Amino acid sequence: xxxxxxxxxxxxxxxxxxxxxxxxxxxxxxxxxxxxxxxxxxxxxxxxxxxxxxxxxxxxxxxxxxxxxxxxxxxxxxxxxxxxxxxxxxxxxxxxxxxxxxxxxxxxxxxxxxxxxxxxxxxxxxxxxxxxxxxxxxxxxxxxxxxxxxxxxxxxxxxxxxxxxxxxxxxxxxxxxxxxxxxxxxxxxxxxx
Length: 193
Known about the structure:
Oligomer: single chain
Number of strands: 4
Mean pLDDT: 88
Helix content: 55-70%
Shape: globular
Strand order of the largest sheet: 1-2
C-alpha cells in the first residue's frame, strides 16, 4: 500500500488519520497491524462487526443496535468498514470531543441518511437500545422511560417538535448539549454492578 513504518498502511491514510484523530503514527501503525490480523481482507463486513459488537453485550440482544452503529460508520455505503472508517469511528466514539460524538450520534439516529431525524427514527433507535438493556435494569427505570416508546417520547419532547416534524443535526447537537437528561436518553451505559 505505501511506505510507512509498517510497510502496510499508506502514507496518505496515515497522514490523514494523524491530522483528524488524536492517535500518533505509532498507535495507528499498531492499530493497523491488529486490524489486518483480525480482518485479513482489510475490511469488516456487517456480520463480522455485529459478532464483535455483541461480545460487549453478552447478556442482551445488541444485533439491531450493532446494525445501526455499522451503518453510521460505513460512510461510503459500501457495506464494509475499511481501516480509515474504523479508526475515525473509534476516535469519534472514544476520544473525540463531545460535539463530534453528538454529530456521530445524530448519524446513528438518522436511519435513512437524509440529514434529518424524525420521531419514527428516534423510536427505531430507542427500540434497538432497549434490546441491550437487561430486564433488571429496565425494571428500575423511571415510569416515563421504561419502554422504548416512552423513552422515544421523552427524548422527542426535548426537541420541542411536533409528531411529524424533523430535527436537524445542529438542533440535535445543541439540544442534547443543553439537556443532560437527553444525553442519557440517547445511549445505553452498562450498569457497573
